[in-house]
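Task 17 of the worksheet. Students: predict the tertiary structure of the chain below and write it out as structure tokens. Keep your answer in the requested format; marks are given for formatting as well as content.
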Amino acid sequence: MTTIALNGTRLRVRCDGERSRPTVVLSNSLGTDLSMWDAQAALLATRFHVVRYDTRGHGGSDATPGPYTIDLLGADVLALLDHLDIERAHLVGLSMGGVVAQWLGAHAPQRLRKLVLANTAARIGTEEGWRTRAAAVRAEGMSDIAAGAPGRWFTPEFVARQAVIVGSMQKTLRGQDPEGYAACCEALAVADMGEDLRRIAAPTLVIAGIHDPVTTVADAQQLARAIPDATVAPLPASHLSNIEAPDRFSELVASFLLA
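Model answer:
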């Protein structure tokens, strides 16, 4: 684990696996950090060089003053690749990380090998909803958002069965910097990748949680229809499908990237 200064901020980064192997970059969802990828990194590092980072405003990365945009968050990834001297990489992004991955696929195709877009959409939620959430965390902090997160992230069965995992994820969310979280909400408020999807040339796997109330199977199918070389893989999970169905998620990603 290290902190790297780039693009006007500092990102916390972790690299696993042999540097000589193809690189896979993992981009986290809103309100989480790079630890959300622990299960996937453990498997992928046996075949790839795995790079994880905390998105700007999250975890151990700086919460620089806003405004943030998806363009800015995408430029952070390009700066990270440059810093690590990585010409091209696979990219796996979930939810907000999936929007960043869409932006990179459309705007920096020469830097990508394959894309995995998990539990995401061309447009997530509404502008009003994101701005309301940003205002709430600025005024009241992260506690209320964290209290309601399990219902957005996981199925009721998973919440009942895996209280330790759920509690750990809530703790991470409560510890996020409110301003960094709010700035990312505002980036999502205006993010709409719909017009850019047909510019994505990388082979793309779209993973959908069949119980996801945030980004639905229909959203995944819309992505796959618009991206020229894309397929959909549904999982029996909710929004954080890589945590609720970690083995199946990891196997899907590894098989797709190795094909």
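Marker's comment: Residues 203 and 229 are 5 Å apart (CA to CA). The longest helix spans residues 70-83.
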